[in-house]
């Protein structure tokens, strides 16, 4: 089986409970410590086997890490791992999932080297749309008035007017293009940084 490591919890000296996102499930498996085992790190894509046990939790076996290009780039790796942590929170106590999420992570991974923050912002829009949480009617979620000029975004990319969230917003056309086409073409690096920071508040 193949999956992304979302989280690890240390139990009993060196053993781990490992949370893995696979195509249709979030698995929580027990991994006994052993010197010959490959490294288990949050964000890693792995091939593995799930071994049934007589106790409550199945065992994680034969882990093989699948390499990707940015693995040795500390900055990119940190951005990736921080995003994966949000995913872990998103699936807290969830067991069954749609294959959308695994495919989304694969897409992100395959394009990550290009410009990690842009790729995350674009794919987050896809996630919001898939979950029916993309607010592309451009009404302020606080005062409910239509937004015509500049738009501010809150956690979850909720749209607000500049009166309700008093800080400099984004040009509405840029955000409309982002929401409708899932493309960040019109946004400069500073704007991407702002969008990334909002994303990091939680998905
Ligand atoms: Zn408002």
Count of DSSP strands: 8
Indicate the overall shape.
Answer: elongated
Biggest sheet details: 5 strands, antiparallel
pLDDT under 50 segments (min length 5)? none
Question: What proportion of the residues form beta strands (DSSP E)?
Answer: 15-25%
Number of helical stretches of at least 4 residues: 5
Estimated structural class:
alpha+beta
> Fraction of residues in helices?
25-40%
- Order of SSEs: EEEEEHHHEEEHH
The order of strands across the largest sheet is: 3-2-1-4-5
List cofactors, ions and other ligands. zinc ion
Round the mean pLDDT to the nearest integer and report it: 94
Q: Using only CA atoms, what is the Rg?
A: 19 Å
The CATH class name of the largest domain reads: Mainly Alpha
End-to-end separation: 26 Å
CATH level 3 topology of the largest domain: de novo design (two linked rop proteins)
Overall number of domains: 2
How would you describe the oligomerization state of the chains in this entry? single chain
CATH architecture descriptor name of the largest domain: Up-down Bundle
Task: Give a summary of the structure in a few sentences.
The chain is of the alpha+beta class. The chain has helices at 74-90, 99-111, 116-130, 172-181, 189-199, and strands spanning 2-11, 15-21, 26-31, 45-51, 59-66, 150-154, 158-160, 170-171.
Protein topology:
Layout: E1 2-11, E2 15-21, E3 26-31, E4 45-51, E5 59-66, H1 74-90, H2 99-111, H3 116-130, E6 150-154, E7 158-160, E8 170-171, H4 172-181, H5 189-199
Antiparallel strand pairs: 1-2, 1-4, 2-3, 4-5, 6-7, 6-8
Helix pairs in contact: 2-3, 3-5
The protein binds zinc ion (ZN).
Zinc ion is lined by residues 140, 142-143, 145, 160-161, 163-164.
């Amino acid at each position: 089986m193949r999956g992304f490591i979302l989280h690890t919890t240390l139990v009993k000296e060196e053993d781990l409970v490992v949370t893995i996102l696979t195509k249709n499930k979030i698995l929580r498996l027990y991994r006994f410590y052993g010197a010959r085992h490959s490294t288990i790190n949050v964000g890693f894509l792995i091939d593995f086997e799930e071994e049934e046990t007589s106790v409550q939790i199945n065992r994680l076996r034969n882990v093989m890490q699948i390499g990707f290009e940015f693995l040795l780039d500390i900055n990119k790796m940190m951005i990736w791992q921080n995003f994966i942590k949000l995913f872990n929170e998103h699936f807290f106590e969830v067991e069954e999932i749609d294959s959308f999420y695994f495919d989304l992570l694969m897409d992100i991974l395959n394009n990550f080297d290009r410009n990690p923050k842009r790729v995350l912002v674009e794919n987050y829009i896809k996630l919001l749309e898939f979950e029916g949480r993309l607010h592309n009617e451009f009404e302020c979620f606080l005062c409910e008035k239509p937004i015509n000029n500049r738009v501010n975004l809150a956690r979850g990319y909720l749209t607000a007017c500049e009166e309700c969230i008093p800080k400099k917003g984004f040009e509405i056309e840029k955000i409309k293009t982002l929401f409708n086409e899932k493309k960040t073409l019109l946004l400069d690096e500073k704007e991407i940084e702002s969008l990334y920071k909002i994303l990091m508040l939680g998905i």
